[in-house]
Amino acid sequence: MAASSLLRSLTGRGCAGPTAFSRYYRHLQYPFSTAAAAGAQGEAGWGFPGLGPTAKGEKARVVVLGTGWAGSRLMKDLDTGGYDVVCVAPRNHMVFTPLLASTCVGTLEFRSVAEPLARIQPAVSKSPGSHFFLARCTGVDPDAHTIDCETVTDGQKDALEPWKFKVAYDKLVFACGAEASTFGIHGVADNAVFLREVHHAQEIRRRLLLNLMLSEVPGMPALLICIMHAVPSAESSRTVRGLGKGFSGRPYPRLCNAGRPRLEPGTCWLQAANEILSSFDVRLRQYAAKQLVKSGVRLVRGIVKDVQPNKLILDDGEEVPYGVLVWSTGVGASSFVKSLPFPKSPGGRIGVDEWLRVPSVQDVYAIGDCSGFLESTGKEVLPALAQVAERQGKYLAQLLNRVMKAGGGHATSAAEVDVGPPFVYKHLGSMATVGRYKALVDLRQSKVR
């Protein structure tokens, strides 16, 4: 089943029509009125009229940073009858991460795991006060209720200099996620591919096919197809098996035998890890390891000390050659999150209270992988999982809608508003696929946190 059908709970409506896009295109062509252009850009630095502080009688503005699980669910459920929604993010779509591994081997097409934000929240392309900006936040001024932004043009040839602009907010929500952890190991950033975005999956697929073709050249030594380093997550384990499934039925006689990959030096997959699926019960981990070995995965227990262009060096001195290195070792707080002048939870995330508010400032919230409970709350930091982020996005949307209906939607006006019960997370368990028609389900940790 395509991921787009699994995302109907996030969409439920069609995409925007041509009128909305033409209106947005006119905004891009003529961002200022002739009378107010110089004043708007020179005095305040707003991108175009409508991004300054909101006045009485106008809709309150919610600014959301990010289009991941948390931010997308929040924007879907926000009441756009009372709020304008402005999203600032480096991508204009949500990625259905559990199925991202399947796109590496062609089981799914890339468009099947990406849902445009305009379909999740049509207001960003239809409502004159709601917008999406392909940009990143570079700074926050909680006293002025503004954020500084700059456009994102990474990877584009002859890219323009980033355009800087400001956005005023009534409510600000950090949902900017996390970044892959490299643990400071030399060479990871330069040589590895992180399976977190669609373009990562595209790069893995390109390199995989290239190595398969090169391995068939007469006299060319067979290349190691993929290394998956340290697999703590279900998605990573599935990726290894997914790469193996990609050989089935393909015309690569040197690598296949009766439709299954052969375990030969230089042609197998290596998984360097001390423990796979470490959050699962030990019996499930043993079953997963057995199934992965049967499918052609060679498990190497070790710690990577150095990554070079064509080989890994483990802590015991062993050298492991590779053709494609996929790095999936968990996530940590991004450099942007660490730079924010807010209290931090353990691990460097933005610290929040039981209502997902940043307690040191007004009208600022944080959800998803970039947030964590402060130690003063007495709650443990929740894991960086999609089900946590999605549940937080749903909860915060309900809270903000309640605040708006009580008259606290505008800046600094929610102090006396009853925000309702605190956020409670109930873990529903974990699942992981380890091969065709084989999967793990661990309900052992189903509990309220």
Automatic annotation (TrEMBL):
Gene Ontology MF term list: NADH dehydrogenase activity
Transmembrane parts of this sequence: none
Topological relation to the membrane, as annotated: Peripheral membrane protein
GO CC field: mitochondrial inner membrane
InterPro entries for the chain: FAD/NAD-bd_sf (IPR036188), FAD/NAD-binding_dom (IPR023753), NDH-2 (IPR045024)
Cell compartment(s), UniProt: Mitochondrion inner membrane
Reactions catalysed according to its record: a ubiquinone + NADH + H(+) = a ubiquinol + NAD(+)
SUPFAM superfamilies: FAD/NAD(P)-binding domain
Record-linked Pfam families: Pyr_redox_2
Domain annotation FAD/NAD(P)-binding: ranges: 61-393
Gene3D superfamilies cross-referenced by the UniProt entry: 3.50.50.100
Family: Belongs to the NADH dehydrogenase family.
PANTHER family: NADH DEHYDROGENASE, NADH DEHYDROGENASE-RELATED
Protein name (record): FAD/NAD(P)-binding domain-containing protein
Source organism of the structure: Eleusine coracana subsp. coracana
